[in-house]
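Example record used in the benchmark description.
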Amino acid sequence: MKRKICVITGSRAEYWLLKPLIEKLKEDKDITLQILATGMHLSSDFGLTYKDIERDGFYIDKKIDIHLNSDTPSGIAKSMGLALEGFTKAYGRFKPDIVVLLGDRFEIFSAACAAYISRIPIAHINGGEVTSGAFDDAFRHSITKMSSLHFVSAKEYRKRVIQLGERPDAVFNVGAITCDSIHKTKFLDKKEIERKLGFRFNKYNILITFHPATLERNTAKQQFKNLLDAIDGLKDTNFIFTKSNADTGGKAINKMIDEYAAKNSRKAKAFASLGHLKYFSVMKVADVVLGNSSSGIIEAPILKIATINIGDRQKGRLKTKSIIDCKPVKPDIQKALKLAFSNKFKITVRNVKNPYYKRNVAGNIKKIIKEFPLGENILKKSFFDIKHNF
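Model output (structure tokens):
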């Protein structure tokens, strides 16, 4: 009997990571693939990116709209409630054997809660990581505790998942799934990108993505203003902004991006969503990735691009020497930019080693999800005490 594997996706970035796994699940004749799309995929504010999934030839079994109309705490809490209800109904209808979740966003947390109370095993990708400046940290660790299978991207993260009480034989260090996505992508060249974006590159170019540090109160606007002030005086430099996600404070940042791009149309352009191909093609051409997105921590080093990581949103992640951490204030951002553009640092970036790299990540995940026994005992987890050797 075919194993029904249900993949959940709620954002453009997450889908791009999951795409190689989705492809392998779809190709396997012994697997029935189910896809549920939610969150930012279904919002016009974020580019209606569910269309990217369909353009890639995948069928979305159910779109679960959680009404991302507000980024206030009450608005997000309402969206989480809608997600919990929507996913519970969808699981009842499609009856998956196992649910696949990636990461740590609030809608993914709701999807995990719904699967847990529906007694459906969860396979969680990218557990064990730390981002101490965002809500995501608590969501991620909570999802870990509800999950039965764990696919982590580094040895240190495997240890942390086990430290949370998970059985070592259910925690697999497969490497970062983004490695598969990067190596499978045929990037657009510079002229193609310019044509598709309607925007010319300059001598120097910076890709900017900045999200609120959600565990800080009312800091997003000032921090982003400091970023804009820091870049405003740069000469021969153009900026491509991708807008903030649906976190608390994101709408304020997006308004500031639109205003800046409108006033500086010759050197700046903003996009709600570039899609994975254009986004990483731009990254490959850029001199620096600036902001606090996880893409600057994980993908930029693979592409040998310098990253300036602002503030605490990504605090705790494993980082390569190509990443410059700085405080969210103008002088520190300017100092980081000067270092990033220096010839000495460019040599460092070219020689950086990727701590997340392993081969055939998606294939290894698929094999384990397909073959791992899913009897009743998989849900009855006992807490693994770290006094044991592992």
